Amino acid sequence: MQEKPRSFPEGLNFLRQDPKKEEFAKLSPFTLLSNLVRSSRAAFFILVRLEGNLRALASSSIEELQEIPFVGPARALQLKSAIQLTYRIQEYCPKRPAISNSFDVYSLCGRSMENLDKEHLRIVLLNVKQIFLGFTTVGMGSLLSVPAGPKEVFRPAVNHPSCSSIILLHNHPSGDPRPSPDDIEATSRLVQAGKLLGIRVRDSILVGHNDYFSFKDEGLIE
Fold first, then answer.
1. pTM metric for this prediction
2. What is 13-91's CATH number?
């Protein structure tokens, strides 16, 4: 028999909240998790295992989530699906906005990279008026060791009929967005490759946890 979503473990009834009477934005993580997985026990053990760190929930694998009591395969899939859906919502763009600064890029394409447990390299495609044309992941690994040469990195831009420039977007799973010497070297190499291919690299943005580093803002890219 499926557990009722409002059955609370003994001693935790004080955490009960009624979403019909309160705004969802004010609900506790415990209540939101209980509503999502329809199990207050599972929500309790998730928060205990992760020590209340919801960022760890986003970066946990399905296998790791299944190890938590009362979670199992179905609820682990529910959790990962909900997290992935939030990424898609963040990235959904019904209109093509103009990109005027690094924060625009971070908000549109970078926030969904904050909880990835591996390094990814994305490129953001722009036209001559710096209108957002889309983005794509071109490799995984450190920026210097992405398993693709400059030609592969720039291929989506070269093949797009309206693309004249790109922005590099790379995440640091450690949470620290400051560039390493390898990041600086690799960015310089890709900027030079872009000049040869006729595709300008407007910026290189490193994504950390709730923060980012822009090469352009720091004067490292013209």
1. 0.61
2. 1.10.150.20
